[in-house]
């Protein structure tokens, strides 16, 4: 509990986490407000209220990476490892704090977007959370944010430099996963197993498209079920994080 308190204090003692949380929430809810206000007379489905969840996800992953790279930048990680020589305990405590915080931000952004859609959409007959899929579309955003934060924390611990870690996260998520689909013959098959593509299926998969215009809605991607998609994304995040723990223990701070 002491390590958790220490990591919480270290995280909230700088401005960057506060700005990242505010930006993640504001960007997600703000763009959703624009979508809801301009939806028109057709019923707005639950799925449409979380179209923008990935915007906040990328910001939260930047926050998670900063949680560890900032310590390496200013040398405070050395004091932490001197106080706790096994190194694993403080890194695990940091992960618990960052993942829980990211999950809460994801839930706040998702339910905030959904609630704002209720207020701004002209037709809310399809916005009620009446099925398990409806709840997954909204509450599932928090789980994806938490897993994404763990992945970013692992990348940050491996790279140790803020610019490098943030570049890897954003370039992979925004560029690599899109470009890989253009590889002849095998691009589409590879793209279906890209981590962020699969994570998106957990939130957006198996929707009720009856109220959407023809051709609208997310494409069908991947071979996994929505919950299998979450397990796959979480497994990748955990694997990267475990590798980072091994590397952190073996190299100099």
TrEMBL record:
Signal peptide: none annotated. Keywords: Membrane, Transmembrane, Transmembrane helix. The chain crosses the membrane at residues 18-40, 46-70, 91-117, 137-159, 166-186, 230-248. This is ABC-2 type transport system permease protein. It comes from Saccharothrix lopnurensis. The lineage of its organism: Bacteria, Bacillati, Actinomycetota, Actinomycetes, Pseudonocardiales.
């Amino acid at each position: 509990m002491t390590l958790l308190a220490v990591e919480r204090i270290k995280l909230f003692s700088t401005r960057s986490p506060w700005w990242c949380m505010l930006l993640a929430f504001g960007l997600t809810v703000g763009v959703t407000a624009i979508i809801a206000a301009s939806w028109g007379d057709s019923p707005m489905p639950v799925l449409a209220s979380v179209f923008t969840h990935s915007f906040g996800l990328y910001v939260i992953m930047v926050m998670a990476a900063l949680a560890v790279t900032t310590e390496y930048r200013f040398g405070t990680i050395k004091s932490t490892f001197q106080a706790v020589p096994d190194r694993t305990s403080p890194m695990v405590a940091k992960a618990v704090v960052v993942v829980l915080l990211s999950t809460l931000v994801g839930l706040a952004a998702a339910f905030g977007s959904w609630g704002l859609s209720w207020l701004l959409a002209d037709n809310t007959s399809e916005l009620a959370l009446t099925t398990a899929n409806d709840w997954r579309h909204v509450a599932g955003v928090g789980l994806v944010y938490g897993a994404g934060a763990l992945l970013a924390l692992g990348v940050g611990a491996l790279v140790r430099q803020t610019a490098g870690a943030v570049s890897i996260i954003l370039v992979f998520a925004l560029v690599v996963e899109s470009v890989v689909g253009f590889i002849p013959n095998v691009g589409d098959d590879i793209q279906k197993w890209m981590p962020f593509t699969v994570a998106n299926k957990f939130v957006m998969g198996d929707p009720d498209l009856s109220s959407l215009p023809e051709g609208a809605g997310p494409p069908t991607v991947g071979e996994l079920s929505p919950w299998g998609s979450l397990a796959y994304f979480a497994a990748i995040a955990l694997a990267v994080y475990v590798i980072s723990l091994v590397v952190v223990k073996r190299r100099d701070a």
